[in-house]
Design goal:
Low-confidence stretches: 1-26
Helix content: 55-70%
Shape: elongated
Strand content: under 5%
Number of helices: 14
Radius of gyration: 23 Å
Number of strands: 0
Order of helices and strands: HHHHHHHHHHHHHH
Structural class: mainly alpha
């Protein structure tokens, strides 16, 4: 049954598989296809959409190895199936004069990927898995899936920063204390690789609503330090009524915060105790 699942999900994903990938990506996907032709037979053959196709092949292979039909691998599978489907749809519109069979091959692959995406969505629609519920909520607007995710988070079953950040953004519309709690926990638990500077803007927005303008300045400044975003110096200064001494102090804290986030030790730092002693 699990083997069939892999077989009927032809176009599947772009997840980097470190143990699978060697020096030459093309060589590895070619080797996978040679040993596992069922993972590649429905894909187009030329070099268009190379990244999407290579990632798809690797993800299918990962799922075949793990014999899984749920969880994050299948969530990634759905996302990358979307990517491949979109790319090959565009490629199928490019008409080859000398090699019309290439256009036909891409059209065939687009049709198969569309069918596979629809089937995989249908087969996972009511799955209780948090990642699959998250997919159906955020990609397809499924309200029942949304409620499953919310319920699982309330039970402490969700730890992935990707899902927690989406929940924080959701709560920010009507329960800013809950949103703030989630964002602050993400600052403490996310690894540097997982961290998204947009979370700092989420916190800045919440503190601005609560009229805590010092923390609004602090988290906005930290976001600016971590990204290429820009902001008016005058506008930032006005948040704290042009207090230059306070601005210098908060800027120093923002730099410290960024350092801790980049090293992944904010949760155990003295700065966390200073900023949020009761959290």
């Amino acid at each position: 049954m699990k083997a069939n699942f892999v077989m009927i999900t032809p176009l599947l994903i772009i997840l980097p598989i470190l143990g699978l990938i060697g020096c030459d990506k093309a060589e590895n996907t070619a080797a996978i296809c040679k040993k596992n032709p069922e993972l590649c037979v429905d894909l187009h053959r030329d070099s268009w959409c190379k990244i999407e196709k290579d990632d798809l092949i690797k993800q299918r292979y990962l799922i075949k190895q793990q014999s899984t039909s749920a969880g994050k691998p299948v969530y990634q599978l759905l996302l990358n199936l979307e990517d491949y489907n979109k790319c090959v749809e565009l490629a199928s519109g490019v008409q080859h004069i000398l090699h019309p069979e290439r256009t036909n091959d891409r059209t065939r692959a687009y049709g198969l990927s569309s069918q596979t995406l629809a089937e995989l969505r249908e087969s996972t629609k009511d799955n209780q898995d948090p990642y699959l519920s998250f997919y159906h909520w955020t990609r397809l607007g499924d309200q029942q899936a949304q409620q499953r995710v919310i319920h699982q988070q309330q039970q402490g079953k969700i730890t992935d920063p990707l899902i927690l950040a989406q929940l924080a953004a959701y709560y920010q519309k009507f329960d800013i204390e809950k949103a703030k709690s989630i964002y602050l926990s993400l600052l403490e638990t996310a690894t540097p690789e997982q961290f998204d500077p947009n979370w700092l803007l989420g916190l800045a927005s919440i503190y601005q609503q609560q009229q805590d303008f010092e923390k609004t300045f602090l988290y906005s400044k930290a976001n600016l330090l971590m990204t290429n975003n820009t902001a008016s110096e005058q506008g930032m200064s006005q948040l704290i009524q042009g207090d230059k001494q306070l601005e210098s102090f908060l800027t120093k804290q923002a730099n410290q915060l960024v350092e801790h986030l980049n090293t992944g030790d904010y949760g155990s730092s003295q700065l966390r105790l200073q900023l949020h002693p009761s959290s």
